[in-house]
Design brief:
single chain; 235 residues; alpha+beta; Beta Polymerase, domain 2; 2 domains; five-stranded mixed beta sheet; 10 helices; 5 strands; 54% helix; 16% strand; elongated; Polymerase beta nucleotidyltransferase domain-containing protein
């Protein structure tokens, strides 16, 4: 391990409440500072600690350290929180304290690699409903060009994330979202490019409508109303 990285790790180990340290992200896979100068570290502590983050540069190495307590990370993984699943999927254990808490945590993280997440029917209906709501707003809204352009970009972003949900895949970080879409569905990726390249706002909305309908083709299309029943309250 490079000396600067080792020193940061040693400083983190000093805290007596530390439960485990993991490298996460790209560095956890390559362990090579010639391939990336970003070192992401996940530090898990016993309870009674608020979530904190530290982003620093030492000897031209970018360190991004997330400090989280055991209960918080376990709850987020149990809830299938896509952000924390993505963080933990690529990991390399650096340090741990022998305890039942660590055993439970490590098992939970390792199981992420083999568990598939199936989307619920009410979540599918929610996406069908929201995409119809988005396009209805754009067709019906009396707004200036800049406001519509802004909304198109917001709704396009939301729709791309929905594609990953519908395919029961973890949602990538924003900086990877665009390119990861191409990997899972090139046809939908091409439709996104049509929306982005079009200069005429009305045609742009029509392209977005077509993009939405293509997403929902195998799920029953737009859902205009919501009958009384289960609704994803946290979305």
């Amino acid at each position: 391990m490079e000396k600067t990285v080792e020193k940061v790790i040693d400083n983190l180990k000093i805290d007596s409440n530390l439960l485990a340290l993991f490298f996460v992200g790209k560095y956890s896979v390559c362990m090579d500072l010639t391939k990336t100068n970003d070192v992401d570290i996940l530090a898990v502590y016993k309870d009674n600690r608020e979530f904190e983050r530290e982003i620093i540069v030492k000897n031209n190495i970018n360190f991004d350290v997330s400090f989280i307590n055991y209960s918080d990370i376990m709850n987020r993984l149990s809830e299938n929180n896509s952000l924390w699943i993505n963080i933990c999927l690529r990991n390399k254990l650096i340090f741990s304290k022998k305890s039942s808490l660590f055993d439970f945590l490590y098992e939970k993280i390792e199981n992420l690699k083999i568990v598939s997440y199936n989307i619920k029917e009410c979540d599918v209906d929610y996406i069908r409903y929201k995409l119809h709501e988005f396009i209805s707003i754009l067709y019906g809204r009396k707004a200036d060009v800049f406001e519509k352009e802004f909304l198109i970009n917001v709704y396009l972003y939301r729709a791309i994330k929905y594609i990953f949900e519908l395919n029961s895949k973890n949602i990538p970080s924003d900086k990877k979202l665009y390119n990861e879409l191409k990997k899972i569905d090139e046809k939908l990726f091409e439709k996104v490019e049509l929306v982005l390249k079009e200069g005429n706002i009305l045609i742009k909305i029509e392209y977005l409508d077509d993009f939405f309908q293509t997403i929902l083709k195998e799920y029953g299309g737009y859902l205009k109303f919501w009958k009384k029943g289960l609704y994803p309250i946290d979305k």
